[in-house]
Amino acid sequence: MQLRQISPCTAPVTWRLPRRSRRKGRPLLWELFTCDRDRHLGARLTGASYVSTQVLQRVAGDPPRCGTLHDHEPVELAVMSHTRVWMPAHEPESGEDPAWLPRLRTAREHETFVGAAERGGLAEVVRAAEQAPDDPEVRAQVLELLAEVEASRVAQRGRY
């Protein structure tokens, strides 16, 4: 599981949004914890225009801070989630590399072109990914580095 912080909000968490796979057994893909004001963040993660209030669950106990995302997805889906939320989303080109690696390269090139603060972090992510994109340890490192870049971006810009 990867831990991502996608909001700098410090308001009390009131909602939990679980996202399950459509496959048999419906494994948990990710869980997002938000306050009332930020519950729209779930729609960005799912690629929808809104989140049905029927899927939101009230939080009990001691939840993490607002904007905390527990990501259980495989690297391919997690990278697509990152591109959908904060990196420029581009269709991968066909080739030998796994589809998520061209997405990272395109995002790095875009961020470098526009002079974004994330360009150095994304360059490091791509360097790590290119070492051995099929190695589970490298994939875990890529997701960890992406989460760090995303958290840094949120801290610098304040919101998505």
In N-to-C order, the SSE pattern is EEEHEEHHHH
Q: What is the helical fraction, as a range of percent?
A: 40-55%
Identify low-pLDDT runs. none
Spatially, the strands of the biggest sheet line up as 1-5-3-2-4
Number of helices: 5
Distance between the termini: 22 Å
Given the helix and strand composition, which structural class is it?
Answer: alpha+beta
How does this model look, in words?
The chain has 160 residues and is α+β, with helices and mostly antiparallel strands. The protein folds into 2 domains: 73 residues, no CATH class; 87 residues, no CATH class. It is 42% helix and 14% strand. It has 5 helices and 5 strands; from the N terminus they run βββαββαααα. A 5-stranded antiparallel sheet has the order 1-5-3-2-4. α2 runs parallel beside α5. The model has no long low-confidence stretch (mean pLDDT 77).
Q: Notable features of this structure?
A:
single chain, 160 residues, alpha+beta, 2 domains, five-stranded antiparallel β-sheet, 5 strands, globular
Topology:
Layout: E1 2-5, E2 15-20, E3 28-34, H1 41-46, E4 57-58, E5 68-71, H2 75-85, H3 100-114, H4 119-131, H5 136-157
Helix pairs in contact: 2-3, 2-5, 3-4, 4-5
Task: Give a quick summary of the entry.
This protein has helices spanning 41-46, 75-85, 100-114, 119-131, 136-157, and strands spanning 2-5, 15-20, 28-34, 57-58, 68-71. It is α+β, with helices and mostly antiparallel strands and 160 residues long.
